[in-house]
Amino acid sequence: MPPELYDNELNRDKLVELERDDFIRSLHLNDDIIPTPVVFVEGFMGPSKPAYWGPLEEIFVSFNKKQILKDRRCIFVAPGCGSSLYDRAIEIFYQIKGGRVDYGENHSKKFGHSRYGREYSGLYPEWSVSKPLHFLGHSLGGVTIWKLQQLLANDTFPLCLEPHPDMIRSLTAVSSPFKGSQSVYLLGATTDPSGTVRPFSFGAWLGRFVHIYEYLDIKWLKSLAYDFNVDHWNLSFRKNWTSLLPWNINQTATIFIEESEELIQETANSLCSTYGLLQCLCKSPWLNSVDNGPYDMTIHSMEEVNSTSKTFKNTFYRTYVTSITYEDPITKYHQPKFSFSLPIPIYFLSKHTGSFNFPENTPNPPISRDEMYKWYENDGLCPKYSQTHPHHECSLDICKHHKGLPEGVSSYKIEVGKWDVWEIDNTTHFGLISGWYKTHKQRLFFKGYKEYLDQIDNQYCV
């Protein structure tokens, strides 16, 4: 007579516990090993607060009371939550390494903002090829890490800081639009690569709110709530008012008298290119350009980004792909599965994302109507097809796909330089990250991610 279901569950739990203990013991070959720190990168409009990720210290420790390895350090970065991939990647680099943010002379002149940004002491100044970091990003955060690695591989950063793509040991992305998302067009972006926004769309009104918020520049509110980190665009009333004074440039230059001549000149130039509030509310030079986060989430932008990007052989890549839709057998479009917990705006956005087509008068659409069906399944904001990896085709050399979340100790070998894709159905864009809801799915995700990082560190330390 077969055992009862309850007995089966007990046996299964005991087996999983034994396997986990064996796995943990295998990591104790050297108890002096310090786990590689992990950097957390939020997505579009993320508040840059640790609470976004939940109680990570508790999550990482509570899954196994017997683990005696040193705690893994968690590093939280705060790039501009509405800024472009390029600007966000630059900011993350200097927040970790330390120093004054340098967006580059050519880039800043091209888009009309200051070359230099804030100065940071460095969250992990020793970051290098010999001391790499793990990275976990949600939504736009995952794509930002991808952009950062590409910049580390070219001449963007000063050579004295020894940039190299191998400084990123692992890149893990959750619900990240690596190929862009059609939902951005629905929210306001025009369907051409100009970067303009429809003036009365949701995106345009959101942009006006950001401009007013940054113009008022209320310091205590920024520290308590949102800090959009767009100082280099000179949107604050402080820079707008003082730039009208003829003596202001010389006064500013004397403040930075100990800085380099290049920085003094840049400071003076930046005060001459401020943007008034009324100008920004009518037609923002920031929002109506290709140097912002919303444009970088378009399919147009990501097609351009990925055309010059590559996967690196010494980095581990993993993506968690979420979806809440099903195919309508009649129309072949995708509809969101009904749930009382699904917010109404997400429901309708998912519905329209699942039936989106570029208008017939769109010049050079990035996707043909015959290929658009691949983009219909979505998680409310991002197509499932876009979340897998930056490549348009799958092959054994590029990726390996799994269903569900990893449970227990992983029974497969992780492979460096290949995209490890986990497809999770019935999960919204915010179902795994963006707040801690104490759900079973969230616990499984963080548990599996912790074990994944342990596996990688063990593989390098053996």
TrEMBL record:
Gene3D superfamilies: alpha/beta hydrolase
Domain of life: Eukaryota
Primary site of residence: secreted
A single GO cellular-component term on record: extracellular region
Keywords recorded for this protein, A-Z: Hydrolase, Lipid metabolism, Secreted, Signal
Localization, UniProt: Secreted
GO MF assignments: hydrolase activity
UniProt xrefs under Pfam families: Lip_C
InterPro entries (alphabetical): AB_hydrolase_fold, Lip-like_C
Domain (Lipase-like C-terminal): residue spans on this chain: 37-190
Single GO biological process annotation from the record: lipid metabolic process
Protein name as it appears in the record: Alpha/Beta hydrolase protein
